[in-house]
TrEMBL record:
Activity regulation annotation text: Allosterically activated by AMP.
UniProt-recorded Gene Ontology molecular function terms: 6-phosphofructokinase activity; ATP binding; metal ion binding
SUPFAM superfamilies: Phosphofructokinase
Enzyme category, top tier: transferase
Pathway: Carbohydrate degradation; glycolysis; D-glyceraldehyde 3-phosphate and glycerone phosphate from D-glucose: step 3/4
Organism listed in the record: Oryza glaberrima
Protein name: ATP-dependent 6-phosphofructokinase
Site (Important for substrate specificity): G263
Gene that specifies this protein: PFK
GO BP annotation list: fructose 6-phosphate metabolic process
Ranges of compositional bias, category Basic and acidic residues: 526-538
Length: 567
């Protein structure tokens, strides 16, 4: 299969480059300086012999600014984008490999071929040409579209078991399943690949350079999956690319497993780029973690099923409280900073919810068709109601009423105001003005939900993610691993960090919710039109200018369907 690699040249004009970099938005992961482009020899090594190179000259464009503005992939990032084309509109959005910058790296037989547990497996190893499509619902004349490299063990590996020194780090907020992933990484490395040198990085990214490594063995992690949280500790921020890679290099680490959300995966991408710049033989494997299920491309993140199950318990409690009082209202706030998946799925699972509010669907409080009018009507009809609200919903309404300024946490996330508390006061004031008796109970189970151990379904999912990450790292790839349409795949870092998965309010799943709760949509025609436009561009990745017409069409087609299937 012929390949086509897009290479954007570096800017020779230092002054123009400096000026453009100053105008770019500050990147929280770039505190150690702008990410350097890969060395020229590394770019050349990345091209297979069958490749067709498309080199884009700066002279082809009126100015460099137009080229930069055409895509959010920087010139430095373009060297790491590997796009391969095939017949009938097939496009492989591939992940980096050690041979891209170490073409003479030796290979070794995979020890799994002699593993007794795999003796009955019909096919030991994944075929090198196996890929996973981003879009599975197609029409008769559809193009084959964008694919990702299939996860799984390869016949040849790029590390001998004795030479592997692996480290594991957890970053960001807590999530059910973190300890399960840690356990399965340790046990998988030890039992499948006979790796004995495995270390835990304590308290997030800063642990690389501010604390001692923790030795991990299958015995030391044997029962940690029964506990919530992370035995390694976690933190936000603390990312210093140069310090981290210096430490990796000094300690001889050659496999890095990074568990965290989109911000953490951005950090993993910066670490990979610095490793490649230095020409180190190191694989970087990202395992996406977000309780909100807002990471792009993948079907769902680990811990999500557990979170929905636990959220339903809180809704059940709110329903009991509401039913036990005259004009009782149970108000439950669930996690969902930018995406309302937990609120939506918990509402659908419960069937006791009368109104669900999420960040993706605007709502208003007063006037005809507003939330307060709906609450009043619902109480007159049923004498009780349950409201579920995602933490990121209605933030614009609170900001207007309180005239607050935006603040951020250590990871660069916007600090949210308490929508649950605000709604409680608004509803109380409304019914007080109407001289109507009511009782409202506000339940916030946020930290209870994220601190519990994962359920059986998530435990299995965590195991598969960990094993897929191990197989990919041993095979020399650097990537984020995830389930895409039911198959585990290796996804380029830039694809999971450039966009965010959100509930599509123009989708049938949201229509099912509205049908279940019988709530109004609270949407104007303008809101609906904007939602459709956002859906159209939601999963379209940032790509370098100069892609062929066929490749660009394939990405557009894959983006037109929901990557996180909402059925």
């Amino acid at each position: 299969m012929a390949s086509s690699h897009i290479i954007l040249p570096p800017d020779d004009d230092d002054e123009e480059q400096r000026r453009l970099e100053e105008e770019e938005d500050e990147d929280p992961w770039a505190r150690s300086g702008p990410p350097p482009a890969a060395p020229e020899h590394a770019v050349k090594a990345a091209l297979p012999f069958s490749a067709t190179c498309v080199r884009i000259s700066r002279d082809s464009y009126p100015n460099l600014r137009a080229l930069r503005n055409a895509s959010s992939v920087s010139l430095a990032d373009a060297a790491y984008v590997k796009i391969s084309e095939g017949d009938f509109g097939y496009v492989l959005d591939d992940v980096p490999h050690l041979v891209d910058h170490l073409p003479d790296a030796p290979t070794y037989p995979n020890p799994l071929q002699d593993h007794p547990a795999y003796s009955t497996v019909k096919q030991y190893f994944v075929n090198e040409d196996d890929t996973v499509p981003q879009k599975v619902v197609v029409q008769k004349n559809s193009r084959r579209g964008v694919h990702f490299r299939r996860a799984g063990p390869r016949q040849k590996v790029y590390f001998e078991s004795d030479e592997v020194k692996a480290c594991i780090v957890t970053c960001g907020g807590l999530c059910p399943g973190l300890n399960t992933v840690i356990r399965e990484l340790v046990c998988g490395l030890a039992h499948m690949y006979n790796v004995s040198k495995i270390y835990g990085i304590q308290n997030g990214y800063k642990g690389f350079y501010s604390s001692n490594y923790l030795t991990l063995t299958p015995k030391s992690v044997d029962d940690i999956h029964k506990r919530g949280g992370t035995v390694l500790g976690t933190s936000r921020g603390g990312h210093d690319t140069k310090k981290i890679v210096d430490n990796i290099q000094d300690r001889g680490i050659n496999q890095v497993y990074i568990i965290g959300g989109d911000g953490t995966q951005k950090g993993a991408y910066e670490i990979f780029k610095e490793i490649r710049k230095r020409g180190l033989k190191v694989s970087v494997a990202g395992i996406p973690k977000t309780i909100d299920n807002d990471i792009a491309i993948i079907d769902k993140s680990f811990g999500f099923d557990t979170a929905v199950e636990e959220a339903q318990r809180a809704i059940d409690s709110a329903h009991v409280e509401a039913c036990s009082a005259e004009n009782g209202i149970g108000l439950v706030k669930l996690m969902g900073r930018y995406s309302g998946f937990i609120a939506m799925y918990a509402t659908l699972a419960s069937r006791d919810v009368d109104c669900c509010l999420i960040p993706e669907s605007p709502f208003y409080m007063d006037g005809e068709g507003g939330l307060l009018q709906y609450v009043e009507r619902r109480l007159k009809e049923n004498k009780h109601m349950v409201i579920v609200v995602a933490e990121g919903a209605g933030q614009d309404l609170i900001a207007k009423s309180l005239s607050t300024s935006e603040q951020q946490d250590a990871s660069g996330n916007k600090l949210l105001l308490d929508i649950g508390l605000w709604l409680t006061h608004k509803i109380k004031d409304h019914f007080k003005s109407k001289k109507m008796e009511m009782t409202i109970k506000y339940i916030d189970p946020t930290y209870m939900i994220r601190a519990i151990p994962s359920n059986a379904s998530d435990n299995v999912y965590c195991t598969l993610l960990a094993h897929s990450a191990i197989h990919g790292a041993m095979a020399g790839y650097s990537f984020t691993v995830g389930n895409v349409n039911g198959r585990h795949a290796y996804i380029p870092f830039y694809r999971v960090t450039s966009t965010r998965n959100k509930v599509k309010i123009t989708d049938r799943m949201w229509a099912r919710l509205l049908s279940s709760t019988n709530q109004p949509s609270f949407l104007s025609q303008k809101d609906i039109d904007e939602a459709k436009e956002n859906d159209r561009t939601a999963n379209k990745p940032p790509l370098p200018t100069g892609l062929s017409h066929h490749v660009a069409n394939s990405f557009d087609q894959s983006a037109s369907s929901s990557s996180n299937s909402q059925i």
